[in-house]
Design brief:
The protein is an alpha/beta fold. The chain has helices at residues 14-23, 45-49, 61-64, 74-78, 92-104, 127-130, 137-144, 157-166, 203-217, 270-276; strands spanning 4-9, 29-36, 69-70, 83-86, 109-111, 151-153, 176-184, 198-200, 233-237, 243-252, 260-268. The protein has a six-stranded parallel sheet, with helices on both faces. The two termini are 16 Å apart.
Length: 279
């Protein structure tokens, strides 16, 4: 099987490094281009990352020697890729502009960023759950005026930890869903100050957990489930990467006699989980 040529936009950051690590020896994809900010452009990937390589294993040798391309030089990136994974540290409006620019250059974008998650014709996908949502890409292409270029996004890491467990239970029409997640401090941004072992109740993550889970479980032309996570509780722990666990409690009274409550605990790495929907 001939592999797809993949570019990593934002390759020097922690998520970009995780992409590179997980794509090593991948049966479908071959990393063929690494792109980052102008200050990294022109250096080898090893030089650009330097001591910021976040993992105990070595940088894959093929990638280590690649010359980093300026992520803004889309014409140059397009020469080397069939599509890109995007994980950049920029303002949301800048991310959306960059990703749409790639799409308009006929480069499909699979995004780890949140900037385009709220756009109706941009599918947010966990393939095992809602692969049918990819059908909205045709509407997006019409809006962007493209033949092949589009943007698809993944949900945030906390969503991925419990929605796969929740989805099979939707047949029981749950009335209430309670969720707790415990995530690494890195998800709150590299400038976040750790003043204690746990930072709780992060409101934006709570909102994302409520709305994104409904989007994943709904159909393209079908009303979304009426039960949404009830005041999701999110905590940041003083760990560099990953999530400690996610817990899910579901209550249903509609299709079974009495009330059925189910509690599920899962462990998941937020960085590797981020790849689950993409790779």
């Amino acid at each position: 099987m001939e592999k797809y040529r993949v570019g990593i936009v934002g390759a020097t950051g922690m998520v970009g490094q995780r992409f590179i690590s997980l794509l090593k020896d991948h049966p479908w994809f071959e990393v063929n281009c690494v792109a980052a900010s102008a200050r990294s452009a022109g250096k080898t990937y090893r030089e650009a990352v330097g001591e910021r390589w976040a993992f105990s294993w070595e940088i894959p040798e093929k990638v280590a020697g690649m010359t980093v391309v300026d992520a803004a030089d889309i014409d140059e990136v397009s020469k080397h890729v069939d599509f890109v994974f995007c994980a950049v540290d920029m303002k949301k409006d800048e991310i959306r502009a960059l990703e749409e620019a790639y799409a308009k250059h006929e480069i499909p974008v699979v995004s780890n960023n949140s900037a385009c998650r709220g756009i109706e014709d941009v599918p947010m996908v966990v393939p095992e759950i809602n692969a049918d949502h990819l059908a909205v890409i045709e509407a997006q292409k019409k809006r962007l005026g493209t033949k092949n270029g589009f943007i698809a996004v993944k949900p945030n890491c906390s969503i991925q930890s419990y929605v796969p467990a929740l989805t099979p239970l939707l047949d029981f029409e749950p009335e209430k869903v309670s969720v707790c997640t415990y995530q690494a401090i890195s998800g709150a941004g590299k400038t976040f100050i750790i003043s204690s072992s746990v930072a709780s109740g992060l409101s934006m993550t709570r909102i994302a957990a409520s709305t994104a889970s409904l989007r994943l479980c709904g159909g393209i032309f079908v009303a979304r489930p009426t039960a949404m996570p009830d005041a999701p509780f999110t905590s940041r722990f003083g760990y560099r990467a990953g999530s400690i666990s996610g817990s899910l409690s579901v209550s249903s009274k509609l299709k079974l006699n009495g009330t059925v409550s189910l509690s599920i605990s899962r462990s998941i790495s937020s960085a590797s989980g981020a790849m689950r929907a993409s790779v």
